[in-house]
Write a structure and sequence with these properties.
heterodimer, A: alpha+beta, Dihydrodipicolinate Reductase, domain 2, 2 domains, 5-stranded mixed beta sheet, 4-stranded mixed beta sheet, B: alpha/beta, fumarase, 5-stranded mixed β-barrel, two-stranded antiparallel sheet, 7 helices, 9 strands, 31% helix, globular
Amino acid sequence: MKGLENKLSGVFLDSLVRGVTGISPDVLNLMKGALQQEESPPAKAMLEAMLKNVELAQKLKKGVCQSPGIPCLYVRCSPEMTGMDIRRIAGESILRATQEGYLRPSIVHPLTRKNTGDNSGPGIPNIEMEVDPALDYLELIVSFKGCGPELFNAFKTFTPESLGENLEGLKRFVLETVIHAGGKPCPPIGLGIGIGGQMDGAAKLSRKAISQRKWDDQNPDPQLNHLEQGLLEKINQLGIGPGGVGGKTTALAVKIDMAYTHTAICPVAVNFHCWVARRFGFRFYSDGRTEEVL
Amino acid sequence: MKNPVHLSTPLDGDSIGKLKIHDVVTLSGTVFTARDMAHLKLKELYRKGAPLPEIFTGGVIFHAGPVVKRANGGFRVLTIGPTTSIRMEPHSDFIGAIGIRAIVGKGGMDEESLRAFKKYGMVYLLAAPGCGVLHAQAVREVKRVYWLEEFGMPEAIWVLEVADWGPLTVAMDSHGNSIFQAIQEEGLRKLDGLVKG
């Protein structure tokens, strides 16, 4: 296991630096597409600035955005690979990247507000781990999203009645949440929606949906896919636009993840992602082979 | 896009009063970064009648926390971009009272700020969000820093010299106008139709 851990360490730091000095290719393509669609000069100027910023970040090898948020790791692995000390490996890479100026030290004690100075601290990074006997690898997806958008995340427990006919209650909740967030969560946004479980379950699903799926993919569940496309179209009619200056591009993607829930409730969580989708992912096989997945 | 109006610090009431929402500006001179903790501490000092670390008359606050590296006995900004301004909404009247005349940030502010902007003659300038490398290019020098040890890198007050920074969009002016408010009202008008559609 030690040998594998060392290999993983090496891959992790390189991928992290690549991940935060650019944005995910799927999101970059959606941004370029949005620029073609926009007609209003302020919206176009905003998207052009954002795309220029990505280019500059790659050229100068700097973090695309100064705000790394709280790093999140989504791990899926075979039972044999659960012994790897992911928290240590990730923590060491995050420390190095912070020292080298790729990540701003942004982590504080929640009450005293004391900054740890190195992006470490209890519960940091946020790691979600799933063990799956069907896998013969460890898959790691790491996501950095700015924390400003977190201010507008919302949660509501619906009942069968308040979900509404044609899910109108749910749609109203999502659209109202987006209207009130306006230009504040760094639009064009990605919106993650978690449906089902209990409060914690829906919240986790909402983050996971927008942090680890490609923003141009299709949901394999036809009902959820339809809901994603419908909500995306409606959000883009709200006119908030890039940076909040008005325009057609308020959201690049809506991604929904679902779990079953209790007969009495339907928890729904909404999670905002800024346009600066900094992510990387790879599969790491027990023989040491690695494969990029994002 | 309109031709940019060039502003230099210290800002004077006349040039701020002329600005209207949707105008575009570039900015040169001194800007102070300040986020939640800096605002709280400045307010506390002011309330006690203690001296503030700087004279803010005609000044610009940038809602931002940079990535800064120590270099040659000083500091160098690697990346800097706007943070979510609405968190500083409760402080607008205070910063107007100490002489600040422009805020640079992202996402916009609310009613209390619009009132303060009118009262003191202030504007809100929108900087492209998520563009830490782009904005850093306008920073010529880190002049001073306050409260770095106490608050850490993002929350310290960094006194920066910027040159031809922009384009920045006048998103809230000193006459009670806000592009954000107008857009939000439009969204709320469309809401019922979109839910049913």
